[in-house]
Specification:
By secondary structure, the protein is α/β, with parallel strands linked by helices. The chain is built from 13 helices and eleven strands. The longest helix has 17 residues, at 32-48. The protein is globular, with a radius of gyration of 22 Å.
């Protein structure tokens, strides 16, 4: 009997609560880290209901201001899952909820090539800065290698890069609460320039650099969700002292002019509830993600959209 009830629960049909005969197709834009999970969840959702069809597309946070321009309101996605709350704040004019329920968790992670045994337990921004600026020190930690190479995401073309250098700013100032003045501080920017000396390929993602054969870098900063694409046995892992959390808030578009705008909002909210169901949350680890509200290692950096945008402008 219990098994039968569980089976019925899994096959729950999702319908709109208002007009029984309406059929609605909606589009949900998801941050790249979330795309595969959200797309598979949408396929599952679509099989289970008779009224709502969900299509998932990818949308990088750095492209959101252009893609979600208010002048394109009639053609915008019905829901948006940015990387983090501060990304929503960076796109001020978009007609979406100002905040929403988190549907998953991701965070930053340091990786070092396993043969660099001198870096064990010492993966932090201060060490990276020290060995980038001092080749003699690197030869001590790096088993005699003359050059230190780091793979860091760029704030100019990714929210992962914004997150990485927000972590760096918190490490430089030794506090998790950041302001726009702190991320544009001349001392901090000089310190970052000294780190970037070690980044020989600024236009390539850390994941691409860390999957090359042979490996051409010594350390890299990635997202936890990148791990499934990497050979974990090749690396030592360490969470940053100051970590930036991607909480993927679910934001519904409001005020649409279409005749069925209210139905589309309700459909978007219904899909949100589906993503928050225990069944879908339990699938997140298979995609390198953690459920909504999961704890992360390190002190969580507190930042608003204005601060994140100020940091990003330093790297354009």
């Amino acid at each position: 009997m219990v098994a039968a009830l569980l089976s019925l629960e899994k096959m729950q049909v999702y319908t709109l609560p208002t007009r029984g005969g309406v059929n609605v197709a909606i589009t949900v834009a998801a941050a790249p880290q979330l795309e595969a999970w959200a797309r598979d969840a949408a396929a599952d959702f679509n099989r289970r209901n008779s009224q709502i069809t969900v299509k998932v597309i990818a949308l990088k946070g750095v492209d959101a201001a252009q893609q979600l321009d208010l002048s394109k309101a009639d053609g915008l996605p019905d829901a948006w899952l940015p990387e983090a709350g501060f990304v929503r704040q960076m796109v001020r004019s978009a007609p979406y909820d100002s905040q929403g329920d988190s549907v998953a968790t991701d965070s930053l992670l340091w990786l070092a090539v396993a043969r660099r045994s001198g870096l064990a337990g010492k993966l932090n921004w201060q060490t990276v800065h020290a060995v980038a600026a001092d080749s003699a020190r690197w030869q001590t930690l790096g088993a005699g290698d003359a050059r230190f190479d780091a793979a860091l995401p760029s704030p100019a073309n990714s929210i992962e890069g914004v997150a990485a250098f927000l972590s760096a700013a918190a490490g430089y100032h030794q506090q998790p609460a950041l302001t726009a003045e702190m991320v544009s501080n001349a001392g901090f920017l000089q310190w970052v320039d000294e780190i970037l000396i070690a980044v020989s390929d600024k236009n390539n993602s850390p994941v691409n650099q860390l999957t090359r054969t042979p490996l051409s870098v010594d350390v890299g900063m990635v997202m936890q969700s990148d791990l499934p694409a990497l050979n974990a046995s090749q690396f030592m892992q360490q969470s940053p002292q100051y970590n930036v959390v991607f909480n993927f808030p679910y934001l519904v578009r409001r005020g649409g002019l279409e005749k069925e705008a209210a139905d589309r909002e309700q459909a978007a909210e219904t899909f949100r509830d589906f993503l928050l169901s225990a069944e879908q949350q339990n699938r997140l680890p298979g995609y390198g993600l953690q459920p909504a509200g999961a704890a992360v290692n390190g002190r969580v950096v507190a930042v608003d959209g204005a601060t994140a945008e100020r940091l990003r402008t330093q790297f354009k």
